[in-house]
Specification:
The protein is an alpha/beta fold. The chain has helices at 22-31, 47-60, 73-78, 93-100, 113-119, 147-156, 172-176, 187-190, 195-206; strands at 4-5, 8-11, 36-39, 66-70, 83-85, 105-110, 126-129, 161-164, 182-185, 215-216. The strands form two sheets. The chain has an eight-stranded parallel β-barrel, surrounded by six helices. It has a two-stranded antiparallel ribbon with strand order 1-10.
Amino acid sequence: MSHRIGRLHVITDYALQRRWSHVEIARRAAAGGADVVQLREKMPVSTLQLMRTASEIRKVVSAGVQLIVNDRADVALAAAADGVHVGRHDLPAHCAREIVGSDRLVGGTANSLEEARRRRDQPFDYIGVGPVYGTTSKENPAPRLGLEALAQIARESRVPVIAIGGIGPDQVAEVMATGVHGIAVLSGIVCADDPEHAAERYRLAMEPCVSEWMVES
């Protein structure tokens, strides 16, 4: 089954900053032009609380904004989210697919060309690739990927590639020129003084690079 995949993914966070809740980040980022919001909770919270947060995000963003839940396929299903994103050490892709079904997105992660190649036969709808320029949002990040490797992954991938890792508005054009489908942003938006304005800057930087915002995978 084909799925529509957004291009500007904003990942929420309540560990790097404490000014904005997940719901407020989602609302502001969507108002600024993000068409995908990924709920990423790394603090210890109950399943019920995470489900409530996801449900609140669904209420405050428009129907045209996709909601993805990081790691928790069960929460994605219970909160009627648009999909789940599973990382390298999370639930296997086929298990996530069994839980959320064929109508929802399953995204994955690759930090190298070799890892992306290993993901080719797994039931992903898109793959997040990076860190392109490095990252400050993880304690033990993968090595910097760079644009050349990113371009190679985009050429070989059978699904849309979403680039992530240290991408600022000024780097959007060169990242999109590698052939990726879109970008994902965490600290560049959630740590900004005005997340809505920050999202607007990314959106404006991306608009000359794309013809359609949501396309079938």
